[in-house]
């Protein structure tokens, strides 16, 4: 399969074009609505040129009493959770949480300012649906909170690779307008942020946490009601990417696998530091052969929320650390 190949979803009738091949198991498929949906490579089959010429579309035949099944549920996309800020007029936007995946998702969202947080919404988000969270005034953009979202995945047909996702979003005036596009599912222009993209997915393992404890934790408080204040730990001003500091067991891992784990930790840390409003961060990557340092510098150079970066504390680390100043 290559970019541009025509494919059919294995457990549905939808067809689309491959727009991106991700590292690992995922492809991005354009089903014709202008949005590329991430799906497992094992969930699609290639349509041969001969079949593409000969086939004729068959009318949809919904099952008795079921009606049309949302495309996200038929395709069972494993990723596609969005925050969409939909303009109501030139003064106000409404925040929506959009689930374009096949998962049923238990969610909570808090608005965090400093070390205090206020509950915005919680509930169950079915596959292929959206939930209106809250309204926001554009004149108060500078005072908008950090939007902390927690998701718990469920399906009776599949086992998720990770059960819980936590994501924090701080909207910044320099980049907010760059996210203006047609919102998935809502089909209106909005400022759209995907919160389950690879860069934003923390490597957390939740398999050993009792399900009842998770559910109780996520459903604390009622939607839109300010509860008791909660303390949130801010990101530390530095991260050490040495494997012993990350507590990564490298037994049997190749050099490439170790590098991927270090870069994943770096990406997650940087996004959280930006969400927490830190002005600068120190990344301790070591000198070594310079591969990790070069990749970190490459990613910092193209990040929209990084003002500039430089080698730091040469007297202590040599070229083994980088300081990044955030916008």
Helix-strand blueprint:
Elements: E1 6-9, E2 15-21, E3 26-30, E4 36-40, E5 44-46, H1 49-54, H2 71-75, E6 81-87, E7 92-99, E8 104-113, E9 116-125, E10 129-137, E11 146-154, E12 164-169, H3 173-176, E13 180-182, E14 189-194, H4 211-218, E15 238-240, H5 243-246, H6 255-275, E16 280-284, H7 291-302, E17 306-311, H8 314-317, E18 321-326
Parallel strand pairs: 15-16
Antiparallel strand pairs: 1-2, 1-5, 2-3, 3-4, 6-7, 6-14, 7-10, 8-9, 8-11, 11-12, 13-14, 16-18, 17-18
Structure in words:
This protein has 327 residues and is of the alpha+beta class. It has eight helices and 18 strands. It has helices at residues 49-54, 71-75, 173-176, 211-218, 243-246, 255-275, 291-302, 314-317, and strands at 6-9, 15-21, 26-30, 36-40, 44-46, 81-87, 92-99, 104-113, 116-125, 129-137, 146-154, 164-169, 180-182, 189-194, 238-240, 280-284, 306-311, 321-326. The chain has a five-stranded antiparallel sheet with strand order 4-3-2-1-5, with no helix packed on it. A five-stranded antiparallel sheet has the order 10-7-6-14-13, with no helix packed on it. A hairpin with a 6-residue loop joins strand 13 and strand 14 (189-194). The longest helix has 21 residues, at 255-275. The two termini are 40 Å apart.
């Amino acid at each position: 399969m290559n970019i541009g190949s025509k494919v059919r979803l294995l457990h549905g009738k939808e067809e689309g074009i491959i727009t991106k091949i991700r590292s690992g198991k995922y492809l991005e498929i354009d089903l014709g609505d202008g949005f590329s949906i991430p799906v497992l490579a094992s969930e699609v089959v290639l349509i041969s040129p001969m079949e593409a010429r000969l086939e004729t579309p068959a009318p949809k035949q919904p099952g008795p009493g079921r009606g049309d099944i949302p495309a996200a549920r038929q395709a069972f996309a494993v990723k596609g959770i969005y925050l969409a800020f939909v303009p109501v007029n030139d003064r106000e936007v409404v925040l929506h949480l959009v689930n374009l995946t096949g998962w049923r998702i238990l969610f909570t969202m808090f608005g965090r300012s400093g070390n205090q947080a206020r509950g915005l919404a919680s509930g169950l988000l079915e596959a292929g649906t959206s939930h209106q969270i809250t309204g926001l005034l554009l004149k108060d953009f500078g005072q908008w909170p950090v939007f902390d979202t927690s998701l718990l995945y469920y399906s009776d047909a599949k086992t998720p690779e990770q059960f819980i996702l936590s994501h924090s979003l701080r909207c910044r005036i320099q980049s907010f307008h760059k996210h203006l596009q047609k919102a998935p599912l809502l089909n209106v222009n909005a400022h759209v942020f995907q919160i389950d993209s690879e860069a934003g997915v923390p490597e957390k393992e939740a398999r050993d946490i009792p399900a009842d404890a998770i559910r109780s934790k996520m459903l604390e408080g009622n939607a839109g009601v300010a509860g008791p204040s909660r303390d949130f730990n801010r990101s530390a001003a530095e991260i050490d990417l040495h494997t012993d500091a990350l507590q990564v067991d490298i037994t049997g891992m190749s050099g490439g696998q170790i590098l991927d784990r270090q870069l994943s930790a770096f990406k997650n840390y940087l996004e959280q530091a930006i969400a927490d409003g830190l002005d600068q961060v120190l990344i301790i990557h070591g000198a070594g052969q310079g591969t990790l340092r070069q990749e970190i510098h490459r990613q910092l150079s193209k990040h929209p929320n990084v003002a500039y970066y430089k080698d730091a504390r040469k007297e202590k680390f040599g070229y083994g650390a980088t300081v990044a100043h955030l916008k």
